[in-house]
Amino acid sequence: MGTETVAGRGTSEEPRTMRYRETEDALWRHHGLDPVERFVELDSPPLRLRITEVGSGRPLLFVHGTAGTGPVWAPLVRELDGFRCLIVDRPGWAFSSPLDYSRHEYGAIVSEV
Length: 113
Fold this sequence. Notes:
By secondary structure, the protein is an alpha+beta fold. Helices cover 24% and strands 27% of the residues. It has helices at 15-30, 74-77, 106-112, and strands at 3-6, 36-42, 47-54, 58-63, 83-88. It has a 5-stranded mixed β-sheet with strand order 1-2-3-5-4, with no helix packed on it. Strand 4 (58-63), helix 2 and strand 5 form a beta-alpha-beta unit. It starts with a strand and ends with a helix.
């Protein structure tokens, strides 16, 4: 595994990226949640995964299916008091870097998180 960093939100982001973030933030707020965004940098394959963390307690990992990003879980996460919800954005979604799925097994990547 590589390194983990807490995300910083600068003003240098593109307008559409800023709009996406604002929309995501509004969705989390709508559900009364204040998540922390982190990034995990993997070495092999070189990949940057965004992990959104909500709550505290026993860890519970969320990985979306073919479509969607972290906030899709907000209504459920809101109900999970006592859990540290770790929500992974799959490669190519939201702020995780893309991945050539024909060359890498995603299950092995998730196990590194």
